[in-house]
Amino acid sequence: MKISWHGHSCIRIETLSNHTLIFDPFISGNPTTDLDPKSLSVDYIVLTHAHNDHIGDTALIAKNTRATIIANPEIADFFEDQGFKTHGIGTGGQFRFDFGTLKFTHAIHGSTYNYQGQQLALGVACGVVLDDGVTKVYHAGDTGLFSDMSLIGPVNVALLPIGDNYTMGIADAITAAQLVNAELVIPIHYSTFPLIQQNPYEFINRLPNNNGYVPQVGEVIEL
Ligand code: NI
Ligand code: MN
Question: At 113, which helix (H) or strand (E)?
Fold first, then answer.
């Protein structure tokens, strides 16, 4: 599996089966990204929740690539109504795709979408566990800390928000890393905006198992 971080919560993953997934493709308006949404090539778009800094460029990318949008059932219905290929998964549900399985987990967070000046209520926020048969990755999405994270792991990689204000901050994300029993911990959802400014090196330096890593934007991690 190849994993790369593209600013905020945007993660690109190439699975063992050579499928490309992009999680939370907030690219336009993201000051920390290296991607061009017009030239992206992906097979699947996975959304943790509907907030605009997560749905991001989903419609544009799906239009160009005909990628399937995988999200909670309310977000999936919203995009299906617009003619996109979608697959809805509810909290606690799992489905086997051609690249492996995805399981949607609990997250403590909202899921409204500001669409053409209206606030649409699109289900609940989730985390996502991807298992390509060899590697298990937990993308926590946006969430506060909850003790049932101990039911999600063990995982090879945990992608955890550390930005604080809207999600967990550093101290709670350190607890989360232990609860999910992750081999490798990567911080996300920080320093995109002034309200979520954080030092990711403080986070990895304080991890008791010394198992954190701060990738550069676009850097590919091979597992
Ligand atoms: Ni959010
Ligand atoms: Mn967010």
Answer: strand 112-115
